[in-house]
Amino acid sequence: MARLCSSIFLFLILLPHLIIPTAYSSATFTLVNKCEQTVWPGILSNAGITPLQITGFTLHKDESKTITAPSSWGGRFWGRTHCTHDSTFTCLTGDCGTGKIECSGAGATPPATLAEFTLDGSGGLDFFDVSLVDGYNLPMMVVPQGGSGPNCSSTGCVADLNGACPSPLRVMSGEEGVACKSACEAFGSAEYCCSGAYGTPDKCSPSAYSKVFKSACPTAYSYAYDDKSSTFTCAGADYLITFCPAPTTTSKKSSDEQNPNPNRNNNLNSGNSEMVYEGLMDTSSAISNTCSHVWVGGVSLLAVSTIRRWLGMLI
């Protein structure tokens, strides 16, 4: 056992020189419609990011569609509702203004509930959120499938804010509330938009209107500087995006409770050492007491998986 521990120690010293950094290959986004009505998802890639091949499509009740995005992708998804196919394609909410189902580089006209992603960002992590900053039109939930990290959890808004929308923010179609504007969209003032003199976190505070959103949907962005409770991160995850999810979806946790995607083995920077320690302890509890003196801070998750394979050959 002493020989084994010495070998592990030497291996960890040489590890930075042995491992060639790798990037995530891709991530999949599975969009599911659990609404009682048809939803037309729209997709917009971030500026400077190569657009996905598909930028809009039809999703009937209980249908799903899976889209693959490269590791470098960043952008947003949303649902369009109450759409018509007359001479041109138009929607009462979330319309992207192209006159077609494909949004082709155009974003959602507010109000619209947004699911926002930046894949393989700082530290090799995916960053994601569900945002009501541009208002609300549909309940939406994002649930990571597989992946890891202390903040790799589901987020979204399952509440019906169209019914609970404050009257100055309501978007109506006849007698039906179909969307709920943000206070910025409704009033256009710098105070509500976190712009001008209110353009910094210390100057822009939650408004009475954004607090309505936050109370109904605690993990969703309710205003521009709502970062602390609304940004989530995962390493190596795929994502399930559900329109009109059942309330029980909020209790889902990702990470080890989900099946990991074997195609997304990753090279995670050492900025999150807690994740590394947990991964290593799970690797081999049998040697944890004997070899606890071996320091492994900064070893990437790729290194941990490599150690697993290496130990399998030694023991």
From TrEMBL:
Assigned keywords, A-Z: Signal
UniProt feature, compositional bias: Low complexity: 259-272
Protein's recorded name: Uncharacterized protein
Secretion signal, residue range per the UniProt entry: 1-25
Source superkingdom: Eukaryota
SUPFAM superfamilies membership: Osmotin, thaumatin-like protein
Organism expressing this protein natively: Daucus carota subsp. sativus
Residue numbers spanned by region Disordered: 250-272
